[in-house]
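Long-time lurker. I teach an intro course on protein structure, and each term I like to show students one example going from raw sequence to a predicted 3D structure in token notation. This year I'd like something fresh instead of my usual example. Would anyone be willing to generate the tokens for the chain below so I can use it in lecture? Attribution to the forum is fine with me.
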Amino acid sequence: MEAIRRFEVLEEGAGVRMDKYLSGVLPEFSRSYLQRLIQEGRVSLNGCPVRAKDKAVPGAVVELEVPEAEEPEIEPEDLPLKILYEDRDVILVNKPKGMVVHPAAGHTSGTLVNALLYHCRGELSGINGVLRPGIVHRIDRDTTGVLVACKNDQAHNCLAKQLKEHTVTRSYRAVVWGNIKEDEGTVDAPIGRHPTDRKKMAVVSSGGREAVTHYRVLERFGNCTYIECRLETGRTHQIRVHMTSIGHPLLGDEVYGRVKAPFRLEGQTLHAMTLGFIHPSRGEYMEFEAPLPEYFARLLEVLRQ
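-- Reply from a regular --
Happy to contribute to a lecture. Here you go:
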């Protein structure tokens, strides 16, 4: 079933290409996706189909047909999993660098979800639909470390509630550029979509969601600092955005970093070390730790020399 979006072109849209104008007023859609809708004849201006290069006209009515998203069938895949703990309610894994957590555009296979579907034989919570079965939280593709998935809806609801109430322990290790002056600190700054680059997040003055990151210096290496970060909230790219906002982007971060790291790194140096929560059935606090990956340990050795 298609959804119909109707709205008037604003004055500031005068003379702007339709595909560009639409991507500005509809940030939830990529420009390439909007161009595809235009090519399929799903966008009209005052009832007439438009082309991507047509110009927006102030006061004209835009009508956009958005087809219902089709969720592809996700296939179980026999992929290696580093299991830290497993019972009938939850499974905790040490996610490797380069593995996407759940299927998305460009990543329909080889994800953690594909691996979990195979290993758990379909025994995963269904609250997040077929694309994200069992997934309560996620970590970036190039972030390593501990992640929990739920095998039933009761466990999923329990952990989701703890995440919402900020009672889950989440400790990360990171190496950032620069020498952080203070031994510890807190970044309390809302995070939202970047105002000009929709693929990025940013600290924003309005419209963002609460985000709090506590950091503590573990070692100093002159032009780099090894830190521990503890999350109160779990916003997209939170640590990466927060550390960049105070002038200390993560080594290897090709999205938020300003300087290319003089090491062979694939993505940011960020590791989810510890995850702790109240077990959904046992009712007791349990904590799990994923050891530093080999590349991270080697990097520290080089920096210590």
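Some talking points for your students: The chain has a mean pLDDT of 91. The helical segments are 18-25, 31-39, 112-119, 153-164, 238-245, 294-304.
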